[in-house]
Amino acid sequence: MTVRTDPAALAALLEAIRHTLPAVRILADAGDRESYRLDETAYLEAGLPGAVAFPMSTGDVSALLMLASKHRVPVVPRGAGTGLSGGAAGIEGALTVVMTRMDRILEIDRANLCVVTQPGIINADLKAAVAAEGLFYAPDPASYESCSIGGNLGTNAGGLCCVKYGQTRDAVLGLEVVLADGTVLRTGGRNVKDVAGYSLTHLFVGSQGTLGIITEATLRLRPAPGPRATLLVFFDSLEAAGDAVARMTSDGLVPVTLELMDRETIRAVEDWHHLGLDVGAAAMLMVESDALGAGASAELDRAETASLAAGGRSMVRAADVQEADWLRQARRLALRALERQGTVRMEDVGVPRARVPELLRAIERSTAAHGVRCATFGHAGDGNLHPNLIFDRDDPDASALTHVVRDEIFRAALDLGGTVTAEHGIGAARRDWLPIQVGDPAVAVMRSIKDALDPLGILNPGRVLQLPSVAIDPVSRLERAGAGP
Amino acid sequence: MTVRTDPAALAALLEAIRHTLPAVRILADAGDRESYRLDETAYLEAGLPGAVAFPMSTGDVSALLMLASKHRVPVVPRGAGTGLSGGAAGIEGALTVVMTRMDRILEIDRANLCVVTQPGIINADLKAAVAAEGLFYAPDPASYESCSIGGNLGTNAGGLCCVKYGQTRDAVLGLEVVLADGTVLRTGGRNVKDVAGYSLTHLFVGSQGTLGIITEATLRLRPAPGPRATLLVFFDSLEAAGDAVARMTSDGLVPVTLELMDRETIRAVEDWHHLGLDVGAAAMLMVESDALGAGASAELDRAETASLAAGGRSMVRAADVQEADWLRQARRLALRALERQGTVRMEDVGVPRARVPELLRAIERSTAAHGVRCATFGHAGDGNLHPNLIFDRDDPDASALTHVVRDEIFRAALDLGGTVTAEHGIGAARRDWLPIQVGDPAVAVMRSIKDALDPLGILNPGRVLQLPSVAIDPVSRLERAGAGP
Asked: Which of A90, A235, B279, B300 sits 20 to 30 Å CA-CA off A325?
């Protein structure tokens, strides 16, 4: 999507920002702005921001949005730019607001097991800061060493330990949010239970900057878990791996990680790093426990029993923490191992967890039929798979072909009762599938909420929801709405 | 609150319902309707419904709301009527829609650990049905033997095991909802992870029938836990009990129950049932574990250690399941034991969990200053306390006095960073405190969402949010909005 805005409106906005907020850094040079065109969704086309602003306080964000509303300039909120749905990609001529300078932890509240933080902090830095106090922040997207908490909140990011600890939304107790008109709102607080009014906290999380900009979050912590114990199990078929997952689930086992890799992924990792993976296997499960004391070993014993009953062909179990770190690389290196083989388009489908083997078969069928290479890994314990379509960027037909395959995989996921995005978000990349998945009445309700909270439509227009009319740019839409300056 | 509606509009609505939905039972007789005036919030004044309808299908609910919209008659959605906020209490002359006939379980999906159910089923019946399949539905409000799942969803009900398993919202994967105009909407599904669009599921849960009527829910199940092991610990002071809770929390202990009773509650229960409680104690904690196998005993060992370190004066630990059932009565009988002593006004405040002792002291100060009897119990592990103000209904000043004390307790909870309602809901009883707690900007956002989803304002008007103007009735408001028939 390329939305155009009015250059005169942008110029007037920048003039007003420089006057009102002289300390806020603004990038206006085209070369500088180019770095904010894309997020990590490299296969998407995106617009060049008209300017990039770096607020340092809630007051800055409030003033920026008040001015953007006044001048009717669309705003793209952005964290570290690691998103996989184009949610923070540029809009041609719009103002991108980058939150990375608001990166301070405001308070670690040990007694109430929570942390109050600004959104710009990197996930791994937050984890490290609370770990120094003997505490644990659970959500761990694969990009945790480079993604920001604000981006995690925007997408309701998942990760490897969701199966035990839930997604980002499950870790949020309260927010400070700036609305499109600059109003500052607080939701929730430090209470683990609170039913006063509608759950605005849950609504803002996952709205990808289309309803407001999050400027502060109160996040739930846990006492530090035990060190990770790691088990890899290899299977002769995808169905056997799926059967092992089902047996663990029905046994009540809740490991902290329950990841699956298919044959292509196993081989790509092993070719690159020689970890000793079983390259004859059709699938691998990585099971980890962070239970305290002897609990970890007991959990992996149960995982082994379930895996053997499902026909596991070989296993590797880490003898100690160092060996666990070594084995864990198998999963962590997966994406980079695939990227050595071509351009990777990573998708993010989910299904009710018992249907994972069916989804894997559907992915195989579609990619084989179109002659597209694909390697799949993902969060088997949650029913969330990442098929990675690998193509040659220099092949002029390849991109269109991966799009066809993507649509077939989306259709297969929905036919299995699934979702086109389990943790990456609709963003710009999957907008066309939202009504197909949730239905027109649900989209109409989402649209009415968007219009209620952002009546001028300046917040990340065209993300999550389509623009009101495909052919229109947001500025002329705003003008048609007849809003005064 | 007593809102009046137009009798002619109601008569026309009933005529249309009888014509369109001849099989839907309607109560029109004043004596019959009287049973639907109140929920369990007995101290509130409430209106007499103009009629009561009992739909049997989603189609019935859709047609009822379409007709109610056409005739501009307010609708009060109601489950089993056990609410403690007046959320399902009658509105004078309005249509109460009772969901108890839609009480079928549609599917128990073992492989995906979920159940699809209609909302009218009683919580305990749902628990029993899934337990017969070796599965567990966690949310357990104290009224679980009589409350309905639909009511639980409406209030995001809590209960005793929230500390381990979360509230009702945490157990919801998907919903079918009928909007004010009769549109049928589906949200979510059977996926544990799904970030497609805004989280409407989370928004509808806890909205107390003001945004739509839930007609079906897909709820998360777990494999059956172990039998409950139960420990009672008695303390010389409220602070010591609070310290024990803090020690358990920081030790990473997550018992399935972590309940507190104060001196007044201990004595009321012991006077009535002679369980052998330590009536010399200032506070009691009930700690339960449902860990599998030897895990339960190990958890209670850790709870004992924490309690002794905090100065626990005596303990009783159940030797077996029968003794655990016996001890568990201490908490289950608490409310009825207090009701033997007078009319009980139960409140529902919450604070960040480390501040429970401060809140208990504030409750003591306020009730002592006004000479109001109070007994407090609640969910210490969540920071959620239920102060029960006990008064003589025949004393003409007593009700007003309890209201003054309530306001002081609310103020104390908010001063501690807490909430005026942790699990019972704003409903009609606590509307005046919503803006004080969440602030005018948050209320304005809630109002804009309400107006977007229910533009005529027919769904449970005046609950959660105030009516747009206090002096106005919803019918004339609707007329002013100029909506055509």
From this structure: A235
